[in-house]
Specification:
It is a single chain. Helix content is 0%, strand content 59%. It has no helices and eleven strands. Strands 2, 4, 5, 6, 9, 10 and 11 form a seven-stranded mixed β-sheet that branches. A four-stranded antiparallel β-sheet has the order 1-3-8-7, with no helix packed on it.
Length: 120
């Protein structure tokens, strides 16, 4: 069974930094695009950043120049380096990945989320 487990959330001050990690585990044949989404209280889940298997990246306009997504394919892990944090970055951050499990078709997987709180 494939799982995504996030870590690295917590409390930061405005202007500070946090680094999120998300490791995929289980019987994995291939991982395609990996990404981070977030959901603030009372709002819909939104895209933060994605990275393809060939390291092509895409960012939401609100985080461009502040956040950096990267991945380590040897560890099945995606990272989100968040700098210059703002109170409006406060949200639950979810990891997402397109994974082909061994013997199965490609599916979309989600982590359980990690809370990021930015104080002013």
């Amino acid at each position: 069974q494939v799982q995504l487990v996030e870590s690295g959330g917590g409390l930061a001050q405005a202007g500070g930094s946090l680094r999120l990690s998300c490791e995929a585990s289980g019987s994995i044949f291939r991982i395609n695009t990996m990404g981070w989404y977030r959901q603030a209280p009372g709002k819909q889940r939104e895209l933060v950043a994605t990275i393809t298997s060939i390291d092509s990246t895409n960012y939401a306009d609100s985080v461009k120049g502040r956040f950096t997504i990267s991945r380590d394919n040897t560890k099945n892990t995606v990272y989100l380096q968040m700098n210059s944090l703002k109170p409006e970055d406060t949200a639950v951050y979810y990891c997402n990945a397109e994974i082909t499990p061994r013997g199965y078709s490609r599916m979309d997987y989600w982590g359980k989320g990690t809370l990021v709180t930015v104080s002013s």
